[in-house]
Amino acid sequence: MKRSMYAGAVRSEHIGQELTLKGWVARRRDLGGLIFIDLRDREGIVQLVINPKTASNTVVKSAESLRSEYVIEVTGLIVERDQANDNLPTGQVEMQVTQLTILNASQTPPFEIKDKIEVNDDTRLRYRYLDLRRPEMLENFKLRAKVTHTIRNYLDDLDFIDVETPMLAKSTPEGARDYLVPSRMSQGHFYALPQSPQITKQLLMNAGFDRYYQIVKCFRDEDLRGDRQPEFTQVDLETSFLSEQEIQEITEGLIACVMKEVMGIELQLPLPQISYDTAMNNYGSDKPDTRFEMTLQDLTDLVKNTDFKVFSQAPAVKAIVAKNAADSYSRKAIDNLTDIVKPFGAKGLAWVKYNDGKIGGPIAKFLTTIEDELTERLQLEANDLVFFVADDLKIANSSLGALRNHLAKELNLIDHSKFNFLWVVDWPMFEWSEEENRYISAHHPFTLPQEDTVAELEGDLRKVRAVAYDIVLNGYELGGGSLRINQREIQERMFKALGFTKESARKQFGFLLEAMDYGFPPHGGLALGLDRFIMLLAGKENIREVIAFPKNNKASDPMTQAPSLVSDKQLDELYLQVNMNAVKNNEQE
Amino acid sequence: MKRSMYAGAVRSEHIGQELTLKGWVARRRDLGGLIFIDLRDREGIVQLVINPKTASNTVVKSAESLRSEYVIEVTGLIVERDQANDNLPTGQVEMQVTQLTILNASQTPPFEIKDKIEVNDDTRLRYRYLDLRRPEMLENFKLRAKVTHTIRNYLDDLDFIDVETPMLAKSTPEGARDYLVPSRMSQGHFYALPQSPQITKQLLMNAGFDRYYQIVKCFRDEDLRGDRQPEFTQVDLETSFLSEQEIQEITEGLIACVMKEVMGIELQLPLPQISYDTAMNNYGSDKPDTRFEMTLQDLTDLVKNTDFKVFSQAPAVKAIVAKNAADSYSRKAIDNLTDIVKPFGAKGLAWVKYNDGKIGGPIAKFLTTIEDELTERLQLEANDLVFFVADDLKIANSSLGALRNHLAKELNLIDHSKFNFLWVVDWPMFEWSEEENRYISAHHPFTLPQEDTVAELEGDLRKVRAVAYDIVLNGYELGGGSLRINQREIQERMFKALGFTKESARKQFGFLLEAMDYGFPPHGGLALGLDRFIMLLAGKENIREVIAFPKNNKASDPMTQAPSLVSDKQLDELYLQVNMNAVKNNEQE
């Protein structure tokens, strides 16, 4: 029989109709001589009733054999329910079943199909098809599809052309680690899965496409954590002839459109903008969470007036005030907070508590000369707790920035109904990499330098600024973009500044440099991390919750067992050998 | 200055307005003391005029330096053109340029940016950004974006959920050759890029998603030809609880929607259906091109009445009639046609010409006893040319099917304005693979057998029929689908019929079999080859014309040089070695 509608969509208006529904047995109860079944499909749950006195023998026998997660087809009359269940959208009605067919049986599932479960992640991933049956998971994917559809409609209306770019691309060692794909037809050669279609979309601008977008998989072979997966999805766009303001306006329109159509929230536009320097100085982060205050205060000048050398001789002393939190933190609890700042290079975490009109704590005695001004500057009130870091400015900022985020969670300062978007602009072009002992691109080597700082490509690289803009949501980097270099001469100087030789630049990026010889237009764009965006909209803390079949922290899939061993024939065709000794040594470690 | 609009969109209604346009110099001509420039952007071309008598010196100097493919920004008054050019949508107007800025220069491109070019494929691919500037190429990608957007809207309206499935998947040797991706975190293990998300989408049905779709990249490491690329795009959908007719209706609706909204063509629904056997018998193909007749005629019974043993003793004798074509084919030309049928196993190609009321040619004398009946059955008319193949039925069908397609092209029988869609249904489940010396799946091992043939899984595999349906357009397989197996017991029998042991089935597909233990619903779906569909809509003969950055026939990209050599560090991290001897031997071949 043809299904009449989704089980979860039955309402009072269907009373009196005979319907056919199909779905899963969420629950069976035998009560007062009747059999009650909760029938579940993707739209929800509806109650079925089988009355052994009136139903046929076959129906009753089938009904009695039902267990959770059996797949069934039922036909019957929709009637008003005696006792309405106001917690269910279908709670006013039930079906009096007259026909029942079991379409498939089920063993007892390894965990219950309901929203709150306590199951370890690998079990959820191993039985992902059961995990996804849980209503809150299914909702995440409906949300995701609605967001992507809204984004596509918005960009389509603005004449963006959806273009697919290659997955089998060229390996470029600049940036994160590539996933490689061995070639069979060019033995010993490898494709790389794209970390982003950055250069490709620039070439589409060179081809005159003018406005490009794509919702596209990208790949990075890096160690994994909550908001990272080996493959992730990007809303990728690029335009020609537009200013950074115009690109930001398009992006803001896109985000406002999603927030309104999907979340029912009216965003105030334009979004706030702060410079990279201000973000670092005030929030200690290039992706500040502005849902709460607790900004960083600069006390460097003030503490010069003390004899406390730890402070007075430090390049920078900065502080944050945890309002009304002094009694929430014992000495031991405060000591534990040093674990938060240490990874950022801070050598220690000083603190004072403010009570009864004065500061207290181990270092209070060193600050008596500045106590009044400190109290006024920080506007201290009873029960405030002040944390100080005295160090290089960069370390002071970033360690207090991390502490700020940590305290906000612990002190429950975050209003989770807020969606605080903002732009971080005026980025440095380069950042120093301790690992590589050289300057690397803060964004990527194709970012346009701000015109008045171009000359520093051959001077002080710290002074080169980028025409780049990141968009931040609730402390997460939601996306980033920039204008790009379209002049070969500037691009060559950029590669040189990054330590490329003429030869190595040509070898890696010769095709891009050559493309710049043929009327490459001014262009720029942006990419948004879709998984992260959906995660934040869904109120989740791990992108795995919004990816249908994600990998675990070892980048493997407990369900299919991918990655797996492959046959010798497959390797031979690729002219590859696995270095088995290395594998064995590694396994013994 | 902000661009006012696209250059190619300027019309008479803009006369009298001062506009700013940006784009490429398509052509510069100096005529009668004036400088004329064709300015090109993605929407077309508009004429600019610079009058050295009235324009500023700077503008004139800039204009005189312009060469093809320079990128410029111009501002000026739109005026009516003295001599309108009716071939151009902008032909009524021109711009009197008052400001001109050169945004980027260009070297002379390696080929002209115009529609008809004679350039070898690798040059086009090496300078793909220039190739894509050619208006007909850009149109292909606008068409493609319009088609995908139309498909998405259609499926979204039908409550299909767009879900992304993994690119880093598990290698399954059943089917075509996988592209492998070595894992760094599980050394010696490999992911595979998906040949299609077949099992994944089935698991989404098991998860209760009910209606899934995705426009998704798929990968096959096979040798390449015109309608094959290493990566290709599929419109992939799957539904639960629907019959094959309902899935076909959804698909027909989708295709009709695209044809109407994108091509302005109203399709007659439902689409015709023919069985696999009829397709083979009448057209010699499982993807018949029905834009022309010339169907295969079965003469096996008739030729039994001759002494011509080549015919009378053959298992099957079939014929096609090339109407009014006898004088177009010399004996030599006919001899050459044997090259068309030989690859299909035909040992020869017999023929007669019909003229003056009788048949002629080398074998005519053997057919005198049946000449009248032959003439009547084939409804021969003057100047008809008849081809015969006498062989196994399969060989006779497929070789005449290929000849039929070949002759249609040579004789120009095809109406290229036609879009003939049809379903081929009632497929055999298995086909014999000479290469593997066993039965393999005609579609894939998850296809549901027709109920009354299931028992033959342990009997005559040739008798097992599939609940499968392919959709064909103009002789191309546009897509295919089926209902799938949802019962573990049937799936296990299917694997056994395909030669799997219990152990090898468990190792490869254990997770699917296990999933069938937990209430797997009845389900089915379909996948359409998007590249092929766009190619046919655009009237092209190679899918490269509708893929932005395709690979050449060696699966490499002449622009980026992908695939390329990678560093030892990259290989070491993957515990891989390239077998260099093998590479060298191979290069010497």
UniProtKB/TrEMBL annotation, chains A, B:
GO biological process, alphabetically ordered: aspartyl-tRNA aminoacylation
Primary location recorded for the protein, binned into one broad class: cytoplasm
Catalysed reactions listed for this entry: tRNA(Asp) + L-aspartate + ATP = L-aspartyl-tRNA(Asp) + AMP + diphosphate
Alphabetical keyword list: Aminoacyl-tRNA synthetase, ATP-binding, Cytoplasm, Ligase, Nucleotide-binding, Protein biosynthesis
Subcellular location: Cytoplasm
UniProt record similarity statement: Belongs to the class-II aminoacyl-tRNA synthetase family. Type 1 subfamily.
The name this protein goes by in its record: Aspartate--tRNA ligase
Protein's organism: Streptococcus troglodytae
